[in-house]
Amino acid sequence: MSEITLEQITELLCQQLIQFTNNDEVTISSETNLITHLAIDSIKLLNLVMEIEDHFDISVPLNTLVDVLTVQDLANLIYKIKSSQ
Amino acid sequence: MNLLEKLDAAAAARKAQLPEGLSAFGIPIDEAFSATEARIGKRRVLMLGTNNYLGLSFSSECRDAAHEAIDQEGTGTTGSRMANGNYYGHRALEQELAEFYHCRECIVFTTGYQANLGTISGLVGSGDVVLIDGDAHASIYDGCILSGADVIRFRHNDTNDLEKRLRRLGDRSKNTLIIIEGIYSMLGDQAPLAEIVKLKNAYHSTLLLDEAHSLGVLGETGQGLVEKTGMIDEVDFITGTFSKSLCGIGGFCVSRHAQLNQLRYISHPYIFTASPSPATIASTRAALKLLRDGQLLRKQLWKNAQQLYTSLQATGYAVGPQPSPIVAVLLDSPKQALALWNGLMEHDIYVNLVLPPAAPEGKSLIRCSVNAAHTSEQIDRVCQVFTELHTVIMQ
Questions:
Q1: What is the mean pLDDT of residues B374-382?
Q2: Dihedral over Cα of B108, B113, B118, B120: its sign
Q3: A39–chain B Cβ distance below 8 A for any pair
Q4: Do B150 and B249 share a domain, yes or no?
Q5: What tens digit of pLDDT does each residue of B182-222 get?
Q6: How far is B133 from chain A (nearest CA, A)?
Q7: pTM, full prediction
Q8: Angle CA B336–B357–B130, to nearest 5
Q9: Does the structure show a pLDDT above 90 at A45?
Q10: Helix/strand/coil (H, E, C) string of B227-273?
């Protein structure tokens, strides 16, 4: 299986977030803050994590999310988990 | 933003969500008259939002036991179980709970919240994994955080989703604690215990079942979901609370594993707190006997539950997935839920208002709970008021 790059994960994440926020007009980049820009509260973030887990076939422990603020932070975390598999 | 400004911002956000709804939370109960009636302000209200499932809060046996304990042992122990707070009653209650569940070990905690905190943080630690149901209670989340283990959430009551997450863990599934609840506190639905037991065995994991809302409610003798499903020998750890069917305050963990006893030496929520007061222990011991022999109470409880659930469903309300003493009415917006809550209060009926993010799936809930002391006439009146309000609220 070919390895996925950090850039690919970031791109996929941006696409997924557009669907999740249900707002086509919002522009999402790696610097987008999940809480202040996308208004993702704690419960929405937990549900988003479940979608991401299924998409990438990984498990993301909730305790690893404490430092996640931006899309880039989340992409880095997914990349790290995916790489360690 | 400094610390106090952060609190101001949180308060402003809460007020902005539902400015007129703030009075619904932490409402002052001015007098409690019985297991079903209280005074709120000038209103004598029917209490349809308690966890008093067997209606034992005013039972003469429990009150007498509490009075006697105060007279004989004083008002408080003033110390931890590990120091001067380890009275005969604490040990007797542990033995009685162990016998009730046919288990080897039992530890009594000072609150139900601490029972989950102390058990979870004692069982798992850094490098271990906890798999929790998506609708798990805050005490479970907090216990997981305290433990330092990796915490992974699976979709509520979805065994396929649980298996997917167990599979991904590989060898780590052996160091995984799965945590579920007998009856979930918001929607009143039950865990698919038999299927989850199969998975925990297949993946060599450990299972903790929280019977907080199912103790006294399910099973012939009221053990909970373990008894209803005949799974007592398959569940590794059972936690529960004294503050619902047992009408006191406190919590416990029972287990068939002798290793549970080790938690007394490592679990901070057990060690670093004062032990339950003698009155609490005495009333809980009396309530446990009533609970165990409470087949008639359970029969009445389920009759009331069925009556309310069926009526609300027939009226057209969206209710929880299965009949239960917790009857949740699901509403699309906080505003709609508040309107229904206010309408019920105007008819002297108290229920719980639950708004996002506390309610599952971003819904707002009117959470009703019936008990064995409610009469058919009281439930009839509640159903009638819900029917009257339906056309007004659901417009």
A1: 97
A2: positive
A3: no
A4: yes
A5: 999 999 999 999 999 999 999 999 999 999 999 999 999 99
A6: 12
A7: 0.94
A8: 145
A9: no
A10: HHHCCCCCCCEEEEECCCCCCCCCEEEEECCHHHHHHHHHCHHHHCC
The whole-number pLDDT of residue A34 equals 84
pLDDT at A20 over 80: no
pLDDT (average), residues B156-168: 97
In a domain, B262, yes or no: yes
How far away is chain B from the Cα of A3, in angstroms, using its nearest Cα? 18
How far does CA B295 lie from the centroid of its chain? 20
From A42, A53, A61, residue closest to B150, measured CB to CB: A61
State how far the Cα of B265 lies from the Cα of B245, in Å rounded to an integer.
Answer: 29
User: Which chain B residue is nearest to residue A62, measuring alpha carbons?
Assistant: B151
Confidence of residue B23 (pLDDT cuts 50, 70, 90): confident
Residue of A nearest to B151 (CA): A61
Beta bridge partners of B241: B251
In a domain, A1, yes or no: no
Q: Are B214 and B76 in contact (CB under 8 A)?
A: no
Specify if A21 maps to a domain.
yes
Q: Which of B293, B311, B327 is the endpoint of a domain?
A: B293
pLDDT given for residue B356 in this prediction: 81
Find chain A residues with C-beta within 8 A of B168's C-beta. 57-59
Residue type at B52 in one-letter notation: N
Same domain, B144 and B272: yes
Set of chain A residues whose Cβ sits within 8 Å of the Cβ of B164:
54
